[in-house]
Amino acid sequence: MATAREMPLCNGSAQPDLQYIKSSVSIVTVARELGLHVTGYKARCWRTERHRNGDADPSIGFQRSKNRWRCFVCDPQSQSNLDLVMSVLGCDLRQAVLWIAERFPVPSLPKGAHVRKREGWSPRFRVGVMEDVITVLVQSGLWSDLSASERSILPVIVTFTDRETGCAGISYRGLMRFSGVGSPATISQTIRHFEQLHLLQVSRKPGELLFRRVNQYRLTSDDPDFQAIVMKAWQRQREEIELERQLRAEQKQARRAKALPV
Question: What domains can be seen in the chain, in order of their start residue?
């Protein structure tokens, strides 16, 4: 892989590579550059009014493997470094891209690469078809935001959902066995995250051992809050694709202008 020095860095005419920014510009370094109080792979949220004690116990966690972040109080899903810049500075996507490109070594868009074709897809569910939950998560981009454990557990809940009642009754031990997840704590964390996404409604049964507890899970794909999260993620993808198109058009125009005889 080429190093930052070997890559064609952005200048007045070149346009920054969005995918490189999202995958390779360290989310922790971006957070520090924004002035966030970072300790290891955690940081205090700047939206202190939403937290007890001004978020003295840091609520933002960084996913090094995915180069993403999430405040476990404010945000239902993890987000990119561009989202962090937009949220903290209150700017749009283009401004966030340029803000990062001015501060970090970012290569220009590769020549000859094609922007992903915009899909003529609208995130709506066919009533009663539970598998569409996964389809919509994939097409909206939310599926890639889930952890590996979450992507293993959700299909199990879908599979065990009774089509007549719309509920899945399964124990933690069952979720662990069929998903391949080895920790009940991970199961519990995943369930809580799905509840935060308004994707899952849980009827918990008290007074039983954790492994033996058989909760009732209902997928709530028609929940307006979940639909809003899906629409936001989908719109974010469309905005990134549109910005990539604009940047490539500007790059092409700049090359043509440079090639014209003086």
Answer: 8-113 (3.90.580.10), 132-224 (1.10.10.10)
| pLDDT over threshold 50, residue 74 | yes
Task: Produce one character per residue of 111-126: b if its CB has 16 or more CB atoms within 10 Å, e if not.
Answer: eeeebeeeeeeebebe
Long-range residue pairs from 256-259, CB within 8 A, at least 24 positions apart, any chain: 258/13
The tally of CA atoms less than 13 A away on the side-chain side of residue 63 is 20
Q: Locate the DSSP E strands across the chain.
A: 38-39, 42-43, 60-63, 68-71, 167-171, 200-203, 214-219
- Report the SS3 class of residue 81: helix
The yes-or-no verdict on residue 212 having pLDDT over 70 is: no
Instruction: Count CB-CB contacts under 10 A for residue 16.
Output: 20
Give the ranges where 104-147 is alpha helix by DSSP (H). 132-140
Quickly tell me which residue has 């990062």 as its tokens. Answer: 100
Q: Output the pTM of the full model.
A: 0.69
